[in-house]
Amino acid sequence: MGLSDDMKAELRRAVGLPVPVLEAVTIADPDAAVYRVGTETPHTVIMVGTLTPVELRINGTVTAMQADGHKMPAVPIGMARRARMPVVRPVASKAQETRRERLQRSWRDVIEAGLKTLEGGTI
Questions:
Q1: How far, in Å, CA of 48 to CA of 25, rounded?
Q2: CA 49 to CA 56: how far, in whole Å?
Q3: Do the Cβ atoms of 36 and 42 come closer than 8 Å?
Q4: In what side-by-side order are the strands of the sheet with 54-58?
Q5: Rounded-to-integer distance, Cα 123 and Cα 105, Å
Q6: Which of 17, 42, 65, 117 has its CA 20 to 30 A from that of 1?
Q7: Tens digit of pLDDT for each residue in 16-52?
């Protein structure tokens, strides 16, 4: 028998791993406004639980200030243990995937071999 999502989440909490985003946002109002800043894959989710105006500053850490200058708590619910390295995700056809699988090589190997070939000027 496999573990349910609840069981997996409980195990993650027990060993100090970050809370999955989908679990963390369950406390949000289903009709909450959602904003996206930037065009890259979002790596930070901030949930605002106050009706009073608040100023947010996000620079590695999150600072929240009320209009009167009082600092508000910004409590981490779940944080990744390390920053993810940005990646580019190329697109391959099904035929290319089949060829790669037949070679029993990773896409990293295929891309590296292709770059080396092109850099050597043999194509």
A1: 11
A2: 13
A3: yes
A4: 54-58, 62-66, 71-72
A5: 21
A6: 17
A7: 777 778 878 888 898 998 988 888 888 888 888 888 8
| Token pair for 102 | 């037949």
How far is the C-alpha of 59 from the C-alpha of 1, rounded, in Å? Answer: 43
The residue among 96, 122, 95 whose CA lies nearest residue 110 is 96
Task: Take residue 120 and report the two structure tokens written for it.
Answer: 């050597």
Report yes or no on whether pTM surpasses 0.90: no
Q: How far apart are the first and last CA of the chain?
A: 52
Beta pairing class for 54-58 and 62-66: antiparallel
Q: Which pair of structure tokens corresponds to residue 43?
A: 């790596």
User: What is the 8-class DSSP label of residue 106?
Assistant: -
Please tell me the distance from the alpha carbon of residue 54 to that of residue 71, in angstroms, as a whole number: 9
Q: Are 74 and 47 in contact (CB under 8 A)?
A: no
Distance CA 66, CA 50 (A): 10
